[in-house]
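User: quick one, sequence for these tokens?
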């Protein structure tokens, strides 16, 4: 038996042959695409089973310290050797005397990796106040930076 590239009895030259092969490949790709789409699954779901979600867009963040600064940070050490940082005393002025705040401290090493930290909640007062924040005991030789976060509750 002899296979030929003849369609409708005509001999085809090389360019026509390439067009027809390309057409056949395109048709085959279309069939594969339709066949794979036939296996898609539709999931039925009502809004009762979708958790609610909302967003605000861009909103300005106001500093809870007035005038948006911390006036001083002091170190409290353990009372016996080896002397370790046990607490950090943060002096600051709340923006509002009608609110309470959470004050958090993170101690960082020379590569800015956290080594200790803690938070104190329900802080309130007027004027400059001192807030003592308990931290996991840290070797003073390892403390290179401190980060203070104050959040209005």
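Assistant:
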């Amino acid at each position: 038996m002899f296979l030929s590239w003849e369609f409708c009895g005509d001999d085809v030259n090389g360019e026509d042959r390439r067009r027809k092969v390309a057409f056949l490949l395109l048709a085959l790709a279309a069939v594969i695409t339709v066949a794979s789409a036939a296996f898609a699954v539709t999931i039925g779901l009502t809004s009762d089973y979708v958790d609610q979600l909302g967003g605000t867009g861009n909103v300005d963040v106001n500093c809870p310290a007035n005038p948006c600064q911390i006036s001083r940070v002091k170190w409290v050490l353990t009372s016996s050797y080896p002397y370790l940082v046990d607490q950090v005393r943060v002096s600051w002025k709340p923006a509002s005397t009608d609110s309470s705040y959470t004050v958090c401290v993170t101690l960082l090493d020379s590569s800015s990796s956290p080594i200790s930290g803690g938070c104190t909640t329900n802080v309130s007062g007027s004027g400059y106040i001192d807030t003592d924040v308990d931290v996991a005991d840290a070797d003073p030789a390892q403390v290179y930076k401190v980060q203070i976060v104050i959040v209005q509750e």
